[in-house]
Amino acid sequence: MNLLIMGLPGAGKGTQAAKIVEKFGLVHISTGDMFRAAMANKTEMGVLAKSFIDKGELVPDEVTNGIVKERLAQADIAEKGFLLDGYPRTIEQAHALDETLNNLNLTLDGVINIDVNPDSLVERLSGRIINRKTGETFHKVFNPPVGDYNEDDFYQREDDKPETVKRRLDVNIAQGAPILSHYRQSGLVYDIQGNQDIDAVFADIADVVAKLK
């Protein structure tokens, strides 16, 4: 069973990925973990990636694609299957993944897309506030401060402000649309309603995965 999980920032992708891995025994492959492991193990692509990172430069697609290929070629993938998280991020990477899977005789069984209305994500992601004195983090809606307090006692980081969050979501939507379209053409996408509680979302995902097994 080989799966890809997609979703906008704040959609709960990380939470659901952990649940999928625990229940179905798949190998969780996230971009960050792959890069760290490749660099620590000093693989060919890991050394190359480090040379860009050390200079403060973006790692080119061909290096990222190479690191993914190195990871997917390892024995545990063939034994257990994988859940790919955070890759591909562009349509070019999606095409590269197709080629990698084909070369390794692996098949992508499904794309789990956690679908959440972007407007609700703006509220979810831009509600974080921080106490100026204590550094404690709260959320205006989901975890408001208790007791008497003054709004001036709190501040918002620039990247938590609604306009910044909306821009970030817009970029993610634009990047994700062609990738989802690509996989829809192959009938691989399963849309999961993400505006439910965590357990309900996972129940829907589990139903899909059970049918794919």
From TrEMBL:
<feature type="binding site">
    <location>
        <begin position="57"/>
        <end position="59"/>
    </location>
    <ligand>
        <name>AMP</name>
    </ligand>
</feature>
<feature type="binding site">
    <location>
        <position position="196"/>
    </location>
    <ligand>
        <name>ATP</name>
    </ligand>
</feature>
<feature type="binding site">
    <location>
        <position position="36"/>
    </location>
    <ligand>
        <name>AMP</name>
    </ligand>
</feature>
<comment type="subunit">
    <text>Monomer.</text>
</comment>
<dbReference type="Pfam" id="PF00406">
    <property type="entry name" value="ADK"/>
</dbReference>
<feature type="binding site">
    <location>
        <begin position="10"/>
        <end position="15"/>
    </location>
    <ligand>
        <name>ATP</name>
    </ligand>
</feature>
<comment type="pathway">
    <text>Purine metabolism; AMP biosynthesis via salvage pathway; AMP from ADP: step 1/1.</text>
</comment>
<keyword id="KW-0418">Kinase</keyword>
<keyword id="KW-0547">Nucleotide-binding</keyword>
<dbReference type="InterPro" id="IPR033690">
    <property type="entry name" value="Adenylat_kinase_CS"/>
</dbReference>
<keyword id="KW-0963">Cytoplasm</keyword>
<keyword id="KW-0067">ATP-binding</keyword>
<protein>
    <recommendedName>
        <fullName>Adenylate kinase</fullName>
        <ecNumber>2.7.4.3</ecNumber>
    </recommendedName>
</protein>
<feature type="region of interest" description="NMP">
    <location>
        <begin position="30"/>
        <end position="59"/>
    </location>
</feature>
<feature type="binding site">
    <location>
        <begin position="86"/>
        <end position="89"/>
    </location>
    <ligand>
        <name>AMP</name>
    </ligand>
</feature>
<feature type="binding site">
    <location>
        <position position="168"/>
    </location>
    <ligand>
        <name>AMP</name>
    </ligand>
</feature>
<dbReference type="GO" id="GO:0044209">
    <property type="term" value="P:AMP salvage"/>
</dbReference>
<keyword id="KW-0545">Nucleotide biosynthesis</keyword>
<dbReference type="InterPro" id="IPR000850">
    <property type="entry name" value="Adenylat/UMP-CMP_kin"/>
</dbReference>
<dbReference type="GO" id="GO:0005524">
    <property type="term" value="F:ATP binding"/>
</dbReference>
<feature type="binding site">
    <location>
        <position position="31"/>
    </location>
    <ligand>
        <name>AMP</name>
    </ligand>
</feature>
<comment type="similarity">
    <text>Belongs to the adenylate kinase family.</text>
</comment>
<feature type="binding site">
    <location>
        <begin position="137"/>
        <end position="138"/>
    </location>
    <ligand>
        <name>ATP</name>
    </ligand>
</feature>
<feature type="binding site">
    <location>
        <position position="157"/>
    </location>
    <ligand>
        <name>AMP</name>
    </ligand>
</feature>
<dbReference type="InterPro" id="IPR027417">
    <property type="entry name" value="P-loop_NTPase"/>
</dbReference>
<feature type="binding site">
    <location>
        <position position="93"/>
    </location>
    <ligand>
        <name>AMP</name>
    </ligand>
</feature>
<dbReference type="GO" id="GO:0004017">
    <property type="term" value="F:AMP kinase activity"/>
</dbReference>
<feature type="binding site">
    <location>
        <position position="128"/>
    </location>
    <ligand>
        <name>ATP</name>
    </ligand>
</feature>
<keyword id="KW-0808">Transferase</keyword>
<comment type="function">
    <text>Catalyzes the reversible transfer of the terminal phosphate group between ATP and AMP. Plays an important role in cellular energy homeostasis and in adenine nucleotide metabolism.</text>
</comment>
<dbReference type="InterPro" id="IPR006259">
    <property type="entry name" value="Adenyl_kin_sub"/>
</dbReference>
<dbReference type="GO" id="GO:0005737">
    <property type="term" value="C:cytoplasm"/>
</dbReference>
